[in-house]
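@channel sequence for tomorrow's demo:
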Amino acid sequence: MFKKGSKLYSIFTGTCPKCHEESMYEDKNPYHLSKVYKMHETCSHCNTRYKIEPSFFYGAMYVSYALGIAFGVAAFIISYVFLSTTLKTAFISISVTLVVLMPVIMRLSRNIWINFFINYDKDWKENKNKKRVN
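structure tokens (generated this afternoon):
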């Protein structure tokens, strides 16, 4: 399920969606906030361009919204239902969760968005060599 070749592998590791060989990001740590959006232009292995068109990753905002809602609901359920806190404390836990996980949510949303459009190619090495010959 989380092996190379699956979309989940690419989404959770932030690797190239086509070859799964290298990270799309210049810095793998999303908590280096000055570099959270810094991406390589292309994959050094399969030459896949990450920014398919100008403003490509604006669509990731919709995914980020959905992820934010999911994490917020999870924080509410954990704090209010399981820990039996007050509504005020549950609201604070939602806010803290979203602030702390925002860099992770931003990266995950980009990873999910690009995986909508680029599929894993197990024969990417052969296809790359064929392009060189032609």
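heads up for whoever presents: Helices lie at 7-13, 60-82, 87-117, 124-133.
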